Amino acid sequence: MDYAEALRVRCVELRRRVQDQRQMQDRVNQDIEACERETAELRGKALQLQLKAEEQHQASKELRSLKAKDAPSLRREVERREHQIKILREDLAKHESETSKLVEVALSEALQAAS
C-alpha cells in the first residue's frame, strides 16, 4: 500500500468518524430539544397548578372571611329570635291566664243559672 492509498483510507475513516460524530450530535441535539419541550410543558403545568392553588387559597380565604362576618350577624339573628320567642311565651301565658279566668267566670255563671 502506497502513501496515497493510505491517505485515502485514512480520509475515508476520518469521514466515517465525522459522519458518526455528526449523527451522534444530531441525536444529542434531538434529545436536548425533547427535554426542553418536556421542561416547557412541565413548567406550564406547574404554573397552572400554582394558579389553581392560589385560586383555591383565595376562595378559602374569602369563605373564612364570610364565615367570620356571618358569625356576628347569625348571633344577632339568634338573639332576635330568642327575644321573639320570649315575647310569644309571655303572650301565651297571658292568654292562658285570661282564658282560665273566663272559663271560671263562665262556670260560675253556669252554676248560678242552674241553681
Describe this structure in words.
97% of the residues lie in helices and 0% in strands. The chain is built from 1 helix and no strands. The longest helix has 112 residues, at 3-114.
Structural topology:
Elements: H1 3-114
Briefly characterize the structure.
The protein has 115 residues and is mostly helical. It has one helix at residues 3-114.
Largest sheet: none
Q: Which structural category do the helix and sheet elements fall into?
A: mainly alpha
* Head-to-tail CA distance between termini: 160 Å
Task: Give the number of helices.
Answer: 1
The stretches of 5 or more residues where confidence is low (pLDDT under 50) are none
Number of E strands: 0
Helix-residue proportion: over 70%
SSE pattern, N- to C-terminal: H
Mean pLDDT: 89
Shape: rod-shaped
Instruction: Work out the strand percent.
Output: under 5%
What is the alpha-carbon Rg in Å? Answer: 48 Å
Descriptive labels:
single chain, 115 residues, mainly alpha
